[in-house]
From TrEMBL, chain A:
It holds the Pfam family Proteasome_A_N. The keyword Hydrolase applies. This is Proteasome subunit alpha type. GO terms for molecular function: hydrolase activity. The 26S proteasome consists of a 20S proteasome core and two 19S regulatory subunits. One of its GO terms (cellular component) is nucleus. Keywords: Cytoplasm, Hydrolase, Nucleus, Proteasome. It comes from the Eukaryota.
Automatic annotation (TrEMBL), chain B:
Transmembrane segments: none annotated. Non-catalytic component of the proteasome. It comes from Lepidopterella palustris CBS 459.81. This is Proteasome subunit beta. It is found in: Cytoplasm; Nucleus. Keywords: Cytoplasm, Nucleus, Proteasome.
TrEMBL record, chain C:
It holds the Pfam family Proteasome. PANTHER family: METALLOPROTEASE TLDD (PTHR32194), PROTEASOME SUBUNIT BETA TYPE-1 (PTHR32194:SF2). Keywords: Cytoplasm, Hydrolase, Nucleus, Proteasome. Its main location: nucleus. GO terms for biological process: proteolysis involved in protein catabolic process. Gene3D superfamilies: Glutamine Phosphoribosylpyrophosphate, subunit 1, domain 1. Residues 1-20 are annotated as: Disordered. This is N-terminal nucleophile aminohydrolase. The keyword Magnesium does not apply. GO terms for molecular function: hydrolase activity. The lineage of its organism: Eukaryota, Fungi, Dikarya, Ascomycota, Pezizomycotina. The keyword Cytoplasm applies. It comes from Lepidopterella palustris CBS 459.81.
């Protein structure tokens, strides 16, 4: 049960210089279903797999539009993400009210990073158990930021977090060179393909379990779900029917 | 001299009797500004096709006394905004410090996008409105001149009540009566701004400063003028009014030597 | 602050070598001479139809006899995204003290945005109208010095129009004029929108004369009425003029128009 003696709170280092509570929080991120984000010169895209706890329940929320110019995708504890997203919404509105300025993405990212860091240095606090991808467009163009429970944030060209996200990241790394010049449609397709990579064999992307968020230069952040993403799924995986058919044939051959 | 600063610079009690401190209030209600003390007069500004010209004289008056004759009432904010202050000078200096701290805060933050004129005007209007709502106003009328997004000229005003408005030409105080008609004759609407050159705008503002010096008793012939364009701010703080002449007065009944 | 200028010796420190300095007593409560309001003039009006609502306001802003600017909008889209208010379905018009008007607009806009964020659906006009009343009433001891008119479409798609006094008393109406020229425009609207003092010709004599029954006006007619109301108000009221801003709310969204008024 006890992994060691230094994981009861987030204010005590282990002799190896580690803070286990923070590391455990990062594990919570890996429990969440995968989310992917990519930026091009003109657009920022988020894509996510939604899980439903059971057949009868609704699907969880994975992408949250915060302000008209950006949104977040989450992996990990959804309730912690809600707290963070409320804070971000509040800060974004405040920026528009006091300065009549859409909050820069680097700014909002560093503000949640500061909050997260505080939780790793005060007794009785618990680190956030959620990782975020923050994507959108500000005065300096499209951006994608990654946020981790430790308070570490990084600006990314493409990123995937959550369960089995290593597969998605491998896809993103392989296609890295194509992102910068990619069109809006191409970028969405890359995100969906990356998402598909990290899916287990028996799972498919459907209009029910997939969310896509897009923002662009001169284009507000918009969340696409359900029938709105039908087209993207069809064009991205157009040979899917064929693959299934081929597999089916193979099976039949084996049978006979 | 003793080591008690409170006792310095006042009549010695042993010579003159106990100091009558009745005018010094140490308790009672918190007091707020009820009227301005040392004041600056008009600020005038006009938009032109690439930016904005703004000017204010260098005088700070104490009632009818021309108290300080070298007070700079135009203030740069980063490289694309100039703020012009009319009204109470101490409140101007407070706002100056406030803007300095805002600028430093912005420079230390992660964002590389500086606050533009519109952002700053919005911020100042919130400060002014908050203070009036607390019944503790900052007794100023402020013009914010500069550029907003895509380097569009921006000019707007905010006063001690938090009232805000924007116009191709603006003038505070006496200037609202004397300069604004002159400015509006040249730049009547937003569409005209596109056809006004920098030279025209500067000449227009200088003309206004002259008229104000002629007719505003609380004005000075030394003034500051700033031109804001995308290339930066050209601020001159020691300008002197040129080619003044009361020759025109000859033609005005009551000024010249003629009777009737 | 006051302690800096106090004549008292430092507390707990050595006293002056002179006799005790007297500490002043407060001279009593001084009356505030700062008045936190002003009137920025102008007028607004709203008319609701069968499937639309029109709000209109002139764009002049005044201080006494001065014109501050010829373009200061009094109509605001509520709950929309970005600087253009895209996607908004509600319009607020405010006339009176412009700084309070702007503050009120921003509060309501933020509330409607937060409502959408929290509930995942846009706020209804009726809910927004009641919320606006509460905002005004909560500040009744230091009121927002504005006459507000809120317009949109109700849940059945009919034109909805709500008018307010500065402390939150509100009512749903067919039409309302507010601001400097309200007393000039309102009687005109009573006659032309609600057909007051209009009788059916030949329906009788004296008390038998039948009142013409009001019915929702077509959009074209209302637009003409609004323009007539303002051109007339401009003639007789010095604080009204420069430009006419109109917002027409239909199920397609909000259509905004601007036309010139006399600048004298």
């Amino acid at each position: 049960m006890f992994r060691n003696n230094y994981d009861n709170d987030s204010v005590t280092f282990s002799p190896q210089g580690r803070i286990f509570q923070v590391e455990y929080a990062s594990e919570a991120v890996k429990q969440g279903s995968v989310v992917v984000g990519i930026v091009s010169k003109t657009h920022a895209v988020l894509a996510a797999i939604k899980r439903n706890a059971e057949e009868l329940s609704s699907y969880q929320k994975k992408i949250i539009p915060i302000d008209s110019h950006y949104g977040i995708a989450l992996a990990g504890l959804a309730s912690d993400a809600r707290v963070l997203s409320n804070f971000m919404k509040q800060q974004s509105l405040a920026s528009r009210l006091t300065y009549d300025r859409a909050i820069p993405l680097s700014e909002i990212t560093s503000r949640i990073a500061d909050r997260a860091q505080t939780n790793t240095q005060q007794y009785g606090k618990r680190p956030y158990g959620v990782g975020l991808l923050i994507a959108g467009v500000d005065a300096k163009g499209p951006h994608l930021f990654e946020f981790q429970p430790s308070g570490v944030t990084q600006e990314m060209v493409a990123c995937g977090i959550g369960a089995r996200s290593q597969m998605a990241r491998t896809y993103l790394e392989r296609n890295l060179d194509e992102f910068e010049g990619a069109s809006r449609e191409e970028l969405v397709k890359h995100a969906l393909r990356a998402l598909k990579e990290s899916l287990s064999q028996d799972k498919e992307l459907t209009i029910d379990n997939t969310s896509v968020g897009v923002a662009g230069v001169g284009e507000n952040f918009k969340l696409y779900e359900g029938s709105d993403i039908q087209n993207w799924l069809e064009t991205t995986f157009e040979n899917r029917e064929g693959d299934a058919a081929a597999e089916g044939e193979g099976m039949e051959v084996d049978d006979s | 001299m003793n080591h008690l600063p409170q006792a310095w610079g006042r009549p010695r009690d042993d010579v003159y009797g106990a100091y009558d401190a009745s005018h010094l209030q140490t308790s009672g209600p918190q007091q707020h500004t009820q009227s301005p003390i040392v004041t600056g007069t008009s600020v005038v500004a006009v938009k032109f096709k690439d930016g904005v010209v703004i000017a204010a004289d260098n005088l700070a008056s104490y009632g009818s006394l021309a108290r300080f004759t070298d007070v700079k009432r135009l203030r740069k904010f980063n490289s694309q905004v100039v703020v012009g202050f009319g009204g109470d000078v101490s409140d101007m200096q407070y706002l100056d410090r406030l803007l300095s701290s805002l600028d430093i805060r912005e420079n230390y933050s992660t964002t590389e996008t500086p606050l533009n004129a519109k952002n700053l005007h919005t911020y100042l209007s919130k400060v002014m409105y908050k203070r009036r709502s607390d019944f503790n106003p900052l007794w100023n009328h402020i013009l914010v001149a500069g550029l907003e997004h895509e380097n569009k000229p921006f000019l707007a005003s905010v006063d001690l009540l938090g009232t805000t408005f924007s116009s191709p030409t603006l003038a505070t105080g006496f200037g609202a009566h004397l300069a604004q008609p002159i400015l509006r004759r040249v730049v009547p609407d937003e569409a005209t701004v596109e056809s006004v050159s920098r030279e025209q705008a500067v000449a227009l503002v200088k003309e206004c400063m002259k008229v104000l010096f002629y007719r505003d008793a609380r004005s000075l012939d030394k003034y500051s003028i700033a031109v804001v364009t995308k290339d930066g701010i050209d601020l001159k703080e020691d300008e002197k009014l040129e080619s003044q002449s009361w020759a025109f007065a000859e033609g005005i009944r009551g000024y010249g030597t003629q009777v009737n | 602050m006051a302690s800096v200028f106090s004549g008292a010796p430092p507390q707990g420190g050595p006293g002056y070598s002179f006799s005790q300095t007297r500490i002043a007593t407060s001279s009593g409560i001084r009356e505030h001479s700062f008045y936190p309001y002003t009137d920025n003039g102008g007028s607004t009006l709203g008319v609701s139809g069968a499937d639309f609502t029109i709000l209109a306001g002139d764009t002049r802003s005044t201080s006494g006899y001065n014109i501050n600017t010829r373009y200061a909008p009094k109509l605001f889209k509520i709950g929309g995204e970005g600087p253009d208010g895209t996607g908004a379905r509600i319009v607020l018009s405010v006339v009176g003290f412009a700084a309070d008007g702007d503050a009120l607009k921003e509060r309501l806009d933020t509330i409607v945005k937060m409502y959408k964020y929290q509930h995942g659906k846009p706020m209804s006009v009726a809910a927004c109208a009641q919320r606006l009343s509460h905002i005004l009433y909560n500040k009744r001891f230091f009121p927002y010095y504005v006459h507000a008119i809120l317009g949109g479409l109700d849940e059945e798609g009919r034109g909805a129009l709500y008018s307010y006094d500065p402390v939150g008393s509100y009512e749903r109406e067919q039409c309302r004029a507010a601001g400097a020229a309200a007393s000039l425009i309102m009687p005109f609207l009573d006659n032309q929108v609600n057909f007051k003092n209009q009788y059916i010709p030949g329906s009788g004599v004296g008390h038998a004369l039948e009142q013409r029954v009001p019915e929702p006006l077509p959009r074209k007619d209302v637009e003409e009425l609004v323009k007539d109301a303002f051109t007339s108000a401009v003639e007789r009221h010095i604080e009204v003029g420069d430009g006419l801003q109109m917002m027409i709310i239909t199920k397609e969204g909000i259509q905004e128009t601007f036309s010139e008024l006399k600048k004298d």
